[in-house]
Design goal:
single chain, alpha/beta, seven-stranded mixed sheet, two-stranded antiparallel ribbon, 12 helices, 11 strands, 47% helix, elongated
Length: 298
Amino acid sequence: MDTQWLETFVAAAEAENFRQAAEKVHLAQPTVSLHIDKLEQHLGVLLFERSGRGVRLGEHGRRFLPYAQSVLADLQRGQTAVARLAQGYDQTLAIAVSPLIAATYLPRWLQGFLRDYPNVEVAVQVMESTDIAQAIADAVCDLGFSRMPSQLSRIESLPLYDDPVVVVAPVGPHDLDGPPRTLEELLSTYPLLTHNHPLYWDDILTSLRQQFGALRSMRVSQVHVTLRWIEEDMGFSCLPKSTVRRALLLGSAVEVPVPDSFSLPVARTYLLHDSGVVSAVGRTFCDFVQAYMGQRRV
């Protein structure tokens, strides 16, 4: 049995349309019909009910479909395993990570880890912190790095490092040779770019309104977009120090001090993993990251 017949059959069964199946598998429509005919002859049954130009998956086709899908899935897994081995990989580590952590600490962790474990293939899925615990519970990923603790009892959350939150603003004309701007000046000049962190914004907004009254705000959900908008003079924000360190060093944004009467929170990063199931390579990477962060300050 030709596996291409199976690929064509699965595409036609899922679409119940030979033309759409032809587009999906990149074949001419007559070739799709030929593959289906050959597969039916091989099995000795009709897989589709034909009516004029239309087709519908028949009883034999419905029964055969999951087996065909399973064969193709096994074949794909086998091809992937052989390709990994040919590239020198013999283990795979799947990581879920928030955009903020993916753009700051994760590259450093992976560079150091892969120097010691070059045979590990790493697959990274960037997703919102709110989705990471579920991805681990569903076995989509081995472990995750999130800006919020897990809400699932079986997914353990280990605090990894604390990140002080600072006020970051566009570079002004007198920032280099004049007195630093105040938080009150920023509030009267720019909108506050909010909700780029899943936890601390409600408290910050409440404190600001209590101390300074009404303010203009704009929701921007992604940290990297928030920082870019600050650099484009679109507003200011409160961001974890690790995410703005490069911009502050390059002078594309400035940190603005806050009065003693206003306190900023500390953002925390968590290492998440399934308390019942942790792969050997996953545990090794967890240990590496914890040791790395224990030797360095944020």
